[in-house]
Amino acid sequence: MPALSKERFQQLAAWFGEALRIPAGAARDDYVTQVSGGDVTIREDLLRLLESDSDVQRSASSGGPSLLPPRLPRFGAYQSRELLGAGGMGAVYLATREDGELRHRVAVKVAAGVLWSPAFDERFRRERQILAELQHPYIARFLDGGLTADGAPYLVMEYVEGERIDAWCDRRRLSIRARLELFLKVSEAVSYAHQKLIVHRDLKPGNILVTEGGEPRLLDFGIARTLEPSGNGGDAQATLSPGLFATPLYASPEVLLGQNPGVGCDVYSLGVMLYELLSGRRPFSGANLQPAQIIERVLASDAPPMSAAVPDDPEIAQARGVDAAQEIRRQLRGELDAVAAKAIAKSTADRYASVEQLAEDLRRYLSGYPVLATSVGPWRRAAKFVARNRTRVIAVALIAIALVAGLVGTTWQARVAQRERIASDRRFNEARELARYLVFELQTSVGDLPGSTPVRAEMVSRSLAYLDRLAAEKSNDESLRVELGRGYLQLADVLGNPFHPNIGQPARAQESYRKAIAILEPIAAKSPENRDARVYLARGKLMLGRSIGFNAASAEGRQLVESATEEFGRLAARWPSDFTVHSQAASAYYTFAQSLLPLGYVSTNNAGPALDAARESTVQARAALLLKPGDPDTVRQLSSGYKVMGDLTELHDRPGATQFFRQSLAALDQLNESDRQSVVALSTRSSALLGLGWNLGNLGDFPASLAALEEARQIRDRTSEQDPKNIQALYFRSIPLRDLAIVHQMAGQNAASLQTFLANIEVMDRLIVQSPSNLGYRFSRAELESSAANLATKLGRMGEAEQLASAALPVLKQAAERPDASAVELAIAARHLLETEVRRLRDPKLALTFAIKSSQLDAKDSEIQEILAEAYWFNGDRPHAVAAIQQSLALIEQTPTPTRQALEKTFRMYQTAKLP
Amino acid sequence: MDGENSGDITGWLEQWAQGEPAALDHLAPLVYDQLRTIADNLLRNEAPDHTLQPTALVSETFLRLLDLHQVSLNDRSHFFAFAAKLMRRVLIDHARRVKAAKRSVPGLLPLDPELGWTGALNEESLDLSAALDELETLDAIGVRALELRYFLGCTGEETAALLGISASTVDRSVRFSLAWLHSRLHSQT
Predict the structure, then answer these.
(1) Residue A868 pLDDT more than 90?
(2) How many whole angstroms separate alpha carbon A886 and alpha carbon A907?
(3) Is residue A870 scored above 60 in pLDDT?
(4) What angle do CA B59, B60, B66 make, to 5 degrees?
(5) CA A236 to chain centre
(6) Phi, psi (5° rounding) for residue A80?
């Protein structure tokens, strides 16, 4: 603040004192405005003083303010002599150790505050062990470590007398070549540490000193990790404070985003330093940039080529032993540009995989060999990066769409004017490129992000509108039309692909699939060698078939899937080393297998062909994975294939089925950690867990069964809560609840079972609210209520049972009385009318009517025949009951499964027991 | 210290208290060495188990002065204020030396940019000294309170007793002075 008069000072002091009595906020501000009497200077001075006061008070509460020098603490055998630096994260002291006549000088780095926890203690001990093993001439030695009396961890390191690497290079006017040679020594040290599995994470010129002899010394290796409050692996703190220990100037995007950094982050930091040492500028530099702005740039923009960054500053040129910036640019242009660009690529996939590779390329350059780094197209780079930064990207996506709109608009105007055809074509291609990018890359990258479904739909449909207009403009451009077809496929997926997160509009989705098919069919027919057209067409048919479904009333769905699967079989034979074809074929065979299974009450008579199709699906998936190991979608497909094999095996071979479910779970282990946590992978996992849990329960292993089902439940609860508008996710919550309730009951845990039923009824209530016209949810709810009522009776909670059953049975009856009631609905209603424990609501007569109708609709279902037999039995008709149960036995596998044994028992009972 | 100067101390202290800056130069040689020792011990913390209280050490110094010379007990408060001022000079000198040392060894770890002025003594302490000088022209008592509180480590009550004002006045004054210094130092950068 500017100089003041003494009078003004005293006046300010008095107002300041008064203002402090008023709590900070509007009232205090009003007071300030009032006393300043319209004098802006006074007002501002006073506000600034009050603001300063709150800063001072804040630092006072965290240990300051003190004009006194800080105490120089003792660290074990080391007495600190001087504070070399301090900040939010801790402090660095110069310390000495008296050892007879010798005085060793060391640097002690101490973390601010107490980080102790048993887990930290253990890790700190381990890390010190690792650091002690880090012995390299270019790395400052780690000497000791421990906890201060206050519990703050400290590390004792060799004290290095040297000069920062950048200053050292400049002062000695090192040429580009000499700088590279020094840099290679630094790389050697980093590479050595990486071999010891230690990542630096905070490499910067300030951490690399050069001794008088010209040898580099790297400081602070492993410090960041060692002094962190807790280890990696889902630690919220580490994620919330990106770059807690790192300066944003040299930190890689993944470090700034708080992701688990690997060796790639050191490659990146070295890349930034290389860029700076050679060009004199950092890749994301700029006058007076705030850290937030630097982070913004590092994440969102590409650095200019290193050679282009060299400023017209004679000092910088002279510091590199030449006269003009032009000369440096000449030396950097081309190969060194490519090396630096590859080292600071945003995505670790585009970056050098190791420091050694970076060093190797530099050595190639120095020996005159061509470097291996080549420049990557900017779109590709950005797309790949985006794939790893999904949240941010959604936010910028709509802005990008606005940009497309602008480009397209320009294109049209240009065309209308019929001028500058070339420029117009260029813009056209730009617009097309952007729309493509938005529809495909961006869409794929945000695909699995929880909560993103509506945003994706918006993004895709808007981008597609532009593609549509572009296609209309150039209607005879075959490749553009293929892209358009593909765009419609993507849109349909978001709108209502039931096997992907979707916004629940299946009708619009089907429309979009049909549009894709209509666009692609003529192209595929005309050009059989157009692989893309054929692949997308087959996929469109597959998805449409899947969306329509495989109910008995309509054969269209199954036919579409069958024809798509046959086509994929042909495509796999025609393009045998095409990953996409194999991967999609796996998906097609899988869907085909599903289409062969009647939904609802599964009869296993036709399991053979379905099992074959499922097996073929796993074969195709494994072929695809040989071409692209670890591909997430294919891994999930493989897992699902095994899962279906388990489903198809379970009725005749439960132990065999559990093996398939375990294979299904094991397949997912091929995914990396973040892919494993994606919504689809979790969904696949939960399905396999359900299969495993259900079969273990039926085999009598209740603890393992309940554990698997409980994990499935938690996965599905979490998924649904993260994406509350996703109806499918909500519906999927009910399935583990159903299985849990049944297994609890089998284990004799009736109270737990009832509780689970009630939880499931709540889920159904929410589904009914979201989708009031869906009668299926009401039916399921009633079914659950009736089952819950039976349990409540067993637990002696009669009032509750009465209430539940009298709500449930009318709904079941009503549903079964509909003229279009399905066989399954009729059978379920019949069963509950026969078996309800609230005896006054039993209605064997009506149940028999329903059961007869059900068996007429589906004569091939063993379970329906069983219910029919039961209905006859309770109506006192022994001959029909026996006949129906015989029919039921004929419809299931002849091997002595528990189901079969139970039926045989019932059969004997109906033959001999007294009629009810 | 020899007896020849003894008669002057009270006089110089009084003159200094009345705002005669030259008095400092006459008084400083008498106690500078002792204060320098106190400051050095403080900075090095040579005996970590024994807490060095600068206030206690200054008291000791004063008592020795009292014994050896014709210093009236009434001069105690003057002496403390004077010692605090001197301590400030010693500490700032120390910071200046550290800064000079840093320049010759450019490879030392840089100070963290997040470090505020209130942390350790550092280059910014020199700005702090200039700001204190400026504050002194506006509020001499305030600076004295600050020096006693922060350079000699006196408590609020001790400061109040030494300056002959109420403790609440000291608190208010110190709080305002700190806020003023803070905004002064931050507006400069």
Answers:
(1) yes
(2) 7
(3) yes
(4) 90
(5) 16
(6) -75, 145
A230 CB-near residues (< 8 Å, 6+ apart): A117, A119, A120, A123, A237, A238
Residue in A55, A64, A87 closest to B114 by CB: A87
10 Å CB burial of residue A787 (0-12, 13-18, 19+) is buried
The whole-angstrom separation of Cα A155 and Cα A843 is 80
pLDDT digits (tens, 9 = 90+) for A207-260: 899 998 899 999 877 665 555 444 333 332 222 233 333 456 787 777 666 555
Q: What is the pLDDT of residues A529-541, one digit of tens each?
A: 999 999 999 999 9
Give every CB contact of residue A353 below 8 A, 6+ residues apart in sequence. A264, A267
What's phi and psi for A106, nearest 5 deg? -135, 165
Contacts of A653 (CB under 8 A, 6+ apart): A895
> Between residues B123 and A533, which one has the greater pLDDT?
A533
- How far apart are alpha carbons A356 and A326 in whole angstroms? 30
In total, the C-beta contacts within 8 angstroms joining chain A to chain B are 135
CB atoms A206 and B108 under 8 Å? no
Nearest chain A residue to B111 by CA: give it: A85
C-alpha dihedral, A607 to A610 to A616 to A622, nearest 10°: -90
Alpha helices in A747-877 (DSSP H): 750-770, 775-794, 798-817, 823-835, 844-857, 862-874
The answer for residues whose C-beta is within 8 angstroms of residue A209's C-beta and 6 or more apart is A160, A161, A162, A163, A164, A165, A168, A216, A217, A219, B107
Judge whether A366 is closer than 8 Å to chain B, CB to CB.
Answer: no
Residue A65: cis peptide before it, omega within 30 degrees of 0 = yes
Burial group, residue A247, by CB count within 10 angstroms (0-12, 13-18, 19+): middle
Q: Which of A202, A220, A578, A858 is catalytic?
A: A202
Query: Is the alpha carbon torsion for A552, A556, A561, A563 positive or negative?
Result: positive
From CA B20, how far away is CA B17, in angstroms rounded? 7
Query: How many C-beta atoms lie closer than 10 Å to residue B170's C-beta?
Result: 27
Residue to substitute from B180, B186, B188, interface A, most A β-carbons within 10 A: B180
Percent helix, percent strand, percent coil in chain A, to nearest 5: 65, 5, 30
Q: How far apart are CA A641 and CA A619, in angstroms?
A: 9
| Whole-number pLDDT of residue B124 | 47
Rounded to the nearest integer, the mean pLDDT of chain A is 79
d(CA A373, CA A185): 20
List the one residue out of A647, A662, A628 whose CA is nearest residue A590: A647
Alpha helices in A235-324 (DSSP H): 236-240, 253-256, 263-279, 291-300, 306-309, 314-319
- Rounded Cα distance between A737 and A783, Å, is 13
Residue A892, pLDDT > 60, answer yes
Residues 6+ apart with CB under 8 A from A261: A199, A201, A252, A254, A255
So what's the pLDDT on residue B113? 24
Distances (CA, A) of A844 to A752, A835, A876, A916: 30, 9, 10, 11
Does residue A350 carry a catalytic annotation?
Answer: no
In tens, the pLDDT along A59-69 reads 554 444 444 33
| Amino acid, res. A134 | L
The predicted model scores a pTM of: 0.42
| Probe site for chain B from A68, A74, A166, A217 (most B CB atoms < 10 A) | A68
| CA distance linking residue A188 with residue A355, whole number of Å | 8
Q: What is the DSSP string of chain B?
A: --GGGHHHHHHHHHHHHTT-THHHHHHHHHHHHHHHHHHHHHHHTSSTTS---HHHHHHHHHHHHHHHS---GGGHHHHHHHHHHHHHHHHHHHHHHHHHHHHH-TTSPPPPTT--TTSSSSHHHHHHHHHHHHHHHH-HHHHHHHHHHHTS---HHHHHHHHTS-HHHHHHHHHHHHHHHHHHHHHH-
